[in-house]
Amino acid sequence: MKSEIQSKMSRRSFLGLGALVAAGSAASMAGCAPKSREGGLAVGGGQSAATAVAADWLGAEPEITDIARTEDTGFLIIGAGTAGLAAAASAADLGLDFILCEKSGTVQETREYWGAVDTKYQKQMGVEIDKPKLLNEITRYASGKCNQEVIKVWLEESAEAMDWIDPLMAATEKPCIVDAHTDHATGGTDYYVPVLQHIWLTPYTPPMRNDVFAAHIEEAGSPTRFNYEMVRLVHDENGVTGAIFNTDEGYVQINAQNTLLATGGYAANPAMMTALSPQTLTVCTSSSFAPNCTGDGIRAGIWAGGVKDPEAASMIFDRGSVAPGVSCGYVGEGDGRMLPGTIFQENIGSQPFMKVNRHGKRFVNESMPYDFMCNAAGQQPGGVWCQIFDANAPEDILRFDTIGCSAFAKQMMAAGMPIDEFCAASLEQGIMVKADTLEELADAMGFTGDDKTAFLEQVDRYNAQFDAQLDDDFGKEAYRLSAIRQAPFYGCWFGGTLLTTIDGLRINKHCQVLDASDEPIPGLYAAGDVSGSFFSGNYPEYIVGVACGRSTTQGRHVARFLAGEIA
Q1: How far is Cα 406 from Cα 419, in angstroms, rounded to an integer?
Q2: SS3 for 174-192, per residue?
Q3: 3-state secondary structure of 226
Q4: DSSP string of 536-556?
Q5: Longest Cα pair distance anywhere in the chain, in angstroms?
Q6: Which class for 63: exposed (0-12), middle (13-18), buried (19 or more C-beta within 10 A)?
Q7: Range of weakest confidence among 179-193, 333-347, 474-488
Q8: Quick one: CA dihedral 440, 443, 447, 450, positive or negative?
Q9: d(Cα 442, Cα 34) in Å, to the nearest integer?
Q10: pLDDT band at residue 10, thresholds of 50, 70 and 90?
């Protein structure tokens, strides 16, 4: 018997993962950089004046005079994604006067992999998390360019968030499991890899977590206002007092005592990506970002006096399958620039099979975090690599025993899914090639002349390393070596897939946006990917599920803070 929420959700139109394949970008606003509340450059926080002046992605804050309607609320939430919906659903439970606005026509896509610390499920399994060690492991990933007080909010409050979320998910008949990995080392080097990831089964079957939140908010009498596109925040020297939205009825100004930006990152804005995260573009061929993550909240927050993280951080997966000869980086011009890949993620790319560059040679230990693999390939021609495996791939994948969402391959192989079905998207498009001989595969992958000879010799060497159970080139673990002898043989070129950006407006532990003097801007908060102070330079893949976990926990934290539940 379906629950009331589940029945309601089945009548809605869901934003599927496939919709992200053609994720578009929005135009940046032209103009010069405004000043912060203290008079310094608003993009400060460590960026040079030269960088700030060149930041034409920021544009001038628009002046809006023709307001069609004005209304008031205690708590304005901008963005119906992971952080915003958690904030709104919490606000509904806590009895706060709030309005939730979303610029698109639906709630944002959800990934059900959710990282949390010291939950009831972990305790039932006897899992113990070393919080100080985890805090310092995340800090190490960020090279210290983070705020540990911000990170501690997730460490200390994610278990409470789980206790709040889980009954809502259970009402839709979606049980929670903990993704507990085995005793295998995870690969590469000695990382701290705690058991963090929780999944509400089945992860890609509606209703998703954000849909459940949306239904919960609607039942509380405060449904999301869709097609409300924020144009700017309302602010003066005393802080932020609301926002102006472009709607079907014209410009609507919502005055608020407190405003939360939960608008996501800027992955879908080519001007911002080119200016702020050019290194990401050199290692990515495909995109799986939400098309409305165009940096609106970051720009509005800077216009209101906030500063952003000076160093970019992107979530990049090693799954951007492309045809031979395709390189990383944008194709097209202006605001129409896009990454060239047409398949948003080919999961098998994250498996530690042999990978070679365009000269047919291995160049790295393939057993490493997703973005490490992409960054290593960024040192090679075109920023891409060719992954090779044979008919024994299902058995190899089970032995590799990866963690996180790459373990989806392991789960499907354990269920008996044929490898051709698992890789159907790339095979059907002819991007992944299946061949009866290695010679044929080399030709299909574009290897010619000396490069083809090097490729065939590399396969022989890799087979010898498998036989010896010793990678004496790059030190990959023996259990993650595999033979390439049994036809049919498979090959596919890959680059990175850009999921989201995770550098944003600097915040304190209560998610209050900070100005150039590290003082909170009255009335302004940021949570999730629009906020910063947590990651720097990379996404810590082995801290599995931390992105969704921190976004949800931060959104809930703001609502609880405003309700006086926490100090």
Answers
A1: 15
A2: CCEEECCCCCCCCCCCCCC
A3: strand
A4: -SS--TTSTTHHHHHHHHHHH
A5: 74
A6: exposed
A7: 179-193
A8: positive
A9: 54
A10: very low
Judging by DSSP bridges, how do beta strands 250-261 and 67-78 pair with one another? parallel
Cα distances from 23 to residues 159, 267, 339, in angstroms, run 33, 10, 10
Q: What is the token pair recorded at 54?
A: 């060149």
Contact 539, 316 (CB under 8 A): yes
What is this structure's pTM? 0.89
Instruction: Identify which of 459, 392, 444 has the alpha carbon closest to the alpha carbon of residue 419.
Output: 392
**Rounded Cα distance, 81 and 555, in Å:** 10
CA–CA distance, 224 with 205 (Å, rounded to integer) = 22
Q: Which residues contact 298 (CB under 8 A, 6 or more apart)?
A: 263, 265, 266, 272, 308, 504, 505, 530
Helix (H) or strand (E) holding 6: helix 4-10
Q: Three-state DSSP class for 293?
A: coil
Looking at the DSSP assignment, which residues form a beta bridge with residue 69? 252
What pLDDT does 204 receive? 63
With the C-alpha atoms ordered 420, 188, 504, 169, is the resulting torsion angle positive or negative?
Answer: positive
In order of 33, 388, 432, 452, the CA distances from 445 in angstroms are: 47, 10, 9, 9
At residue 504, the 3 state secondary structure works out as coil
End-to-end Cα spacing for the chain? 42
pLDDT at 38: 38
CA dist 509 and 147 (Å) reads 8
List the structure tokens of 527. Answer: 């949570």
Residue with tokens 């032995």: 399
